[in-house]
Amino acid sequence: MPASSFEWVVRSNHSEDAGVSPNNSKGKRPPLFESIHVAPKFWPCPHCGRKGRRKARGARFVRSLAFGCEAWLRITYGVYRSRCGCQRTFRSFPEEAPPGWHYSRAVRRAVVDGIIRDQMPTTRVRTRLREDFLLDVSVGFIYECLDWAYEEISKEDYRDWVLENFSGVLCIDELHDSRDRKLLLATDPLNDFTVHFAIAKKCDQDSMDAYLDELKAMGIVPLVVVTDGSSLYKQALFERWHEVEHQLCVFHVLKEANEHILRGVRALAKTLPKPKKYRRGRPRKRGRPRKRDTRRAFVMKRVHLVVKRRDRWTDQDHEDWEKMSQILPELETMRRFVDDLYALFQQGSTKKTARFRRTRLVNNPAYRENPHLARVCRMLPREKFNKMITFLGWDNVDRTSNHVERSNRSFRQMQKTRYKRRHATTITKACWLFLIRRWMEHPLYRPPQAQPPPRLPPKTQPGQKRAA
């Protein structure tokens, strides 16, 4: 395609072509016109590529972008006589404004960037274009721009890039969008990108098996898969990848364990006497103080100190804990249990050390006598615990599924900007546009005919497997 010549010309005497007045009564800048000449002697047919000879010239105006003023493209095109049987005549056009477009490609990119990159609703995108570029677009044109952007993306290039930069660690999670729509998402936590997503009607074993089959068909061969405690992954992962290691999310297990521990702390606090109730109004005798027992309220207000990590305590937390332990000495046992529980998943330790600590924790008679602590111990069977400490056998493997959870929250935020994303088709288009935008901003992304991607730190690779 021949190169276009760009010349910015401020037209003051011939503004009738643009349909605007040259008079600047409101203090605005005059309109800008950019001339694009695409009328060579020969031009290829848009269907078969056979060149036709020019028979006439024409001109059309397309709205463009310029900050603070109106901008127009004056396109000089050619009309060509076809030498093939596709059609009788056809026209030439620049890449910036194909036939039938009333707005340039820059306008469409600005609309898509506002919706996808800036997470703006349609009303705010229209307001931005109106205030910054004096351009008034319709809501239907915004939806048309999103459909155009979806047709422009290359899914195969993205999948090839994913296979090339996959680190070997996979995070999988499911998101319940509505009664008949579930989003299945898989991410790479080390290199920070989304591997694949799918929309299913139900979040059952058949849907999960189909999703894992899609991952395997893509060529994904994970070494470690990080998931929550759902039973959907129990056997499905090993049926498709026989040598894969399963890492259960430690955060979900600790969260459930802390709920049982706090329930026991509140039960102990309720054994303290309630403060005495007095009748309303002034005391009968002046100067007689009303003595209240505030021990129960003091403990109930600070029960979080039992499960809060000690390295995050403040000076005030240390003072409050000393007072709480004097009021209820039984809290010392629960605090020691929490410290031992956190030590099971301490970074830098080995699997052998973690198993030894788990055995000592479960067999401690002081913990087994407490019904709430004993219930937490039953949550750590040997088979489940071995999946929770998989990350200790690798140099750089996440122990939580927080990465895919953050991707789910990004989807929620993206969905709020356009309430039309409530069908499988619109959700799929929105997710693909969001993935392609993040892909182009990724440090490992290499555009065509560009420099090699920069090297990431060594921690982004899974590393060697440690000894058991």
Question: What key phrases describe this protein's structure?
Answer:
disordered N terminus; 11 strands; alpha/beta; six-stranded mixed sheet; 468 residues; five-stranded mixed sheet; Nucleotidyltransferase, domain 5
Q: What is the strand and helix layout of this fold?
A:
Layout: E1 7-10, E2 32-38, E3 42-44, E4 51-64, E5 71-81, E6 89-91, H1 105-117, H2 122-133, H3 139-152, H4 155-165, E7 169-178, E8 181-188, E9 193-200, H5 205-218, E10 224-227, H6 236-240, E11 245-248, H7 250-269, H8 295-301, H9 315-327, H10 331-343, H11 351-362, H12 365-369, H13 371-378, H14 382-388, H15 402-417, H16 424-440
Count of folded domains: 3
Helix count, per DSSP? 16
Count of DSSP strands:
11
Which value, in Å, is the CA radius of gyration? Answer: 33 Å
Largest sheet: 6 strands, mixed
What percent of residues are in strands? 15-25%
Low-pLDDT parts are 1-25
Outline type: elongated
SSE order: EEEEEEHHHHEEEHEHEHHHHHHHHHH
CATH fold-level label of the largest domain: Nucleotidyltransferase, domain 5
CATH architecture name of the largest domain: 2-Layer Sandwich
Summarize model confidence as the mean pLDDT: 85
Structural class: alpha/beta
What's the name of the CATH homologous superfamily of the largest domain? Ribonuclease H-like superfamily/Ribonuclease H
Helix content: 25-40%
CATH class of the largest domain, named: Alpha Beta
Distance between the termini: 62 Å
